[in-house]
Amino acid sequence: MSSPSQYFTTPIFYVNDAPHIGHAYTEVATDVLARWNRQRGTDTRLLTGTDEHGQKILRTASAHNTDPQAWADKLVREAWEPLLAEVNISNDDFIRTTDERHEKGVQAFLQKLYDDGYIYAGEFDGLYCVGCEEFKTKTDVAEGTGAFAGEQVCKIHSKPLELLQEKNYFFKMSAFQDRLLALYEERPDFVQPASARNEVVAFVQQDLADLSISRTSFDWGIPIPWDNSHVTYVWFDALLNYITALNYGTEDESLLERYWPANHIVGKDILRFHAVIWPAMLMAAGLEVPKHVFGHGWLLVGGEKMSKSKLTGIAPNEITETFGTDAFRYYFMRAISFGQDGSFSWEDIAARYQAELANGFGNLASRVLAMNAKYFDSAQPESAESAAADRAIAELVADVVARAEAAIDRFAIHEALAAVWEIVDALNGYITEQEPWVLAKDAAQRDRLGTVLATATEGLRALAVLLNPVIPVAAEKLWVALGAADAIGALNEQPLGEVGNWGQLPAGTKQTQLEVLFPRVEINEAK
Ligand code: MSP
Known about the structure:
Elements: E1 5-14, H1 21-39, E2 43-51, H2 55-63, H3 68-86, E3 93-96, H4 100-115, E4 119-129, E5 134-136, E6 141-143, E7 152-154, E8 162-171, H5 177-186, E9 191-192, H6 194-205, E10 211-212, E11 214-215, E12 223-224, E13 227-232, H7 234-239, H8 241-244, H9 254-259, E14 263-267, H10 271-285, E15 292-296, E16 299-301, E17 304-305, H11 316-323, H12 325-335, E18 342-343, H13 346-376, H14 388-409, H15 413-434, H16 436-439, H17 446-467, H18 472-481, H19 484-488
Parallel strand pairs: 1-2, 1-14, 2-3, 9-15, 14-15, 16-18
Antiparallel strand pairs: 4-5, 4-8, 6-7, 8-10, 11-13, 12-13, 16-17
Helix pairs in contact: 2-3, 5-6, 11-12, 13-17, 14-15, 14-17, 15-17, 17-18
The structure holds 5'-O-[(L-methionyl)-sulphamoyl]adenosine.
Residues 11-14, 22-23, 25-26, 51, 238-239, 241, 266-267, 269-270, 298-299, 305-307 line the site of 5'-O-[(L-methionyl)-sulphamoyl]adenosine.
């Protein structure tokens, strides 16, 4: 990730239902990557949005006796936009596939591919899953059970597939098989993690079929520009959001030039669309393929993907109302290896909240600031001659920064966070060993007391910057209490790469009382 700019995208979310914590998980992970890059001083853009066309939304709207546009407007306003505030997403843009800018961009793209001979008319029949909005191949199909016994069902949704037979337009995806395989070969980190890459390569090595990209049986979609009796297949429409949001196909493509290509963060269920169909579309249009496509794991409930359609969804606010936004973000980034499946439990989040956030980090910050208040009249102490233990803290911080940076570049958010936590643990150990409260009793140790507390406070400064991408509310509170905002500038402006430069807080900087960062929580017995 060393280019001058970085563009991070989340998938755009179907508006058939309200978000659950699986969706919030995708949002938070992508947000952390974007915030981390901004903290590096990199010109960074974060995009998220909603996917509003297709049969699934149309059917949901009809089931609620409303039209799809009104339904989408309601869900965006009442559920999807509020989610961003609930988990503190710092997106620069929010695209809806019903935006005029998007519809025009999609039509411009389609017209170009049609004019260049990449789209043709044909006949198609196949088994379609409306839940996935995808034609299914034999390997994606299972035998139904219970009410669906004897029927063929989708492996993901466990619902019956529908036989679709239509005259469609097709995208000549098969023409890109060799170029795609060459891409995976030449850029082994294009699709991540490695297990996902292997699956994608195996898929493309089989016969890559052309893709049906239009529908005539319903009209909730973007009209095919040269044939209004067809609407665009919802996935072909949706994938283009990543470039229509950068004004693709308009007179001013400066955003596209500045930010494209992107890093796409998606759930593993939709990796194939992003790692196969999408690069083929871009190749056909003569655009660069993405930098990276990262497929993260699922939040599981009872061993299965958490989903609203299976009634296993937990609303994000059920968690944020108890633990707060920062803890939500911290927990999912820390407890689950990014790229693997994970599960959520109230016991686990409560335990980590108490041990790591409240006792580990929150207590450390409040103890150090309280000692500065008591022994140095709420000012940054002067550091005198340093001892090996003090230098070990500074060295650890520099080392952690390097390791965390490298982990983020591998999308290993959990590793970056675990590395940063080594500083929390080391500082707690340092204070226990140095016993500043004992030093304070001996006037001859005044210099040593200053050095110990100055070191610990510098450690807090480093933690505020390193944790700002993950727990921005607590990091900002700490920054303010340290007096750092006035002394060395806004938290967001502190270059992450310079965190290890020791002695940034000038001696004498006035500090203020720290609000409790992670207050005690009562967990409802019923949970
Ligand atoms: N609209 C498509 C994406 C189009 S992108 C051009 C879509 N939408 S979705 O709302 O169904 O899912 C959006 C994202 O949420 C996907 O990345 C999906 O993997 C993720 N998740 C949905 N349930 C999830 C879990 N239980 N756990 C983790 N992520 C989950 O697909």
